[in-house]
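May I ask for a single protein's sequence together with how it folds?
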Amino acid sequence: MRVPERSAPRLARSAALRSLAVLGTGDVDIAERAVSLRPVLTPDLIACRLALASARERVTLPDLVSLLPGTLSADLQGIDLTARALDRGRDIHGRARSLESEA
């Protein structure tokens, strides 16, 4: 099933609302790491295969993933997204899937 091109703005709106919802969580995490004498960081590259049919949405999603606390989109090759994560213990796959499902 093809996803309409017009759903990319809806995906952006949803991601913005989700970012506001996790903003407090991200702030708490950053504050804890800032005052910790030995912050626990386990950086890693996380690979996700995207299920979005629309090229426009596939290009928009990495930008939205970068808005999630502790992540940065690093590469997009077709349907394969690579993101940098400050902590590999975070559920980056789940967050990306959640954003995709709202498209």
About this structure: The two ends are 13 Å apart (CA to CA). The longest strand covers residues 71-77. Residues 7-101 form one domain.
